[in-house]
User: What shape does this take?
Amino acid sequence: MSAMTKRIGLLVGWEESFPVAFLERANALPGVEAGLVRIGGIGERHVEGFDVLVDRVSHKVKHYRSYLKAAAIAGAYIINDPFWSSADDKFVGYTLAARLGVAVPRTVMLPQKTYPPAVVPERSLRNLEYPLDWRGIVETVGFPAVLKPADGSGAEVSIVTSAEGLLAAYDASGTSVMVLQELIAFDRFVRCLCLGQDQILPLEYDPHRRCYLPHDDERWLPQDLHDRIVGDARTLNRALGYDLNLVELAVRDGVPYALDFTNPAPALHREQLPPHAFDRVVDGLVTLAVERAGRARTRDAYRFGKLLG
Assistant: This one.
């Protein structure tokens, strides 16, 4: 192997079509060697053999996430940054988006309904407002609304249309931190695949049937709406710093509302995505990984990276 070879490692879960296509296209390039990463025990002075690591699964496997952080400290570039991926959450995203001028549904974060035994309410929750101002919360969000986990997990999502229904759903939420959010009755639903923080590919999606809607023309949106959606998705992606992300927007009365935009491991199955979208994402991610190899390090964004030289 040449000293100038760019080594790209891939971490995957149960996906089949994406890793096969990614590795084939990466290895077809001169001076590039790509393969699946093998992860065992990790020492405290970990030396990373890959220049770039493309992560598709560490949000589900904690051991992999710690490995990626060690690899970043060792000098590798990670797609996506495991430190930020570990720190972000959906509610923080809404507060950031609102201050960036991106339209979001009215949203209120709620404290946990219950706590583990180590948390004694009389001693540990002296800063917690009790009882909650439910009247003010309902006036802020309105009905219908969605009650869902603030960490973005798919469980425990409820549509509520009354104060009684809200309290029943909240009482059943257990130890999860929840957000109550205005339900957007949308005219169109758009998913934007984002690459390298600047490349934005809007795709129409039907969340009820859970499928993408095909269009012969990639510019299927009216120009002004297309420009706003792409601009909002680009703003969010630049602010979050993701190299691969999925931004979901619901369009109501011509206004795109950002619903979900912290998705650093979006599903990339050939059989689910429109063909042009699958090919563009694979090719774009290969190009991005090759560009980052040897030229960028994830640790450089952090204070410890400066100390490490």
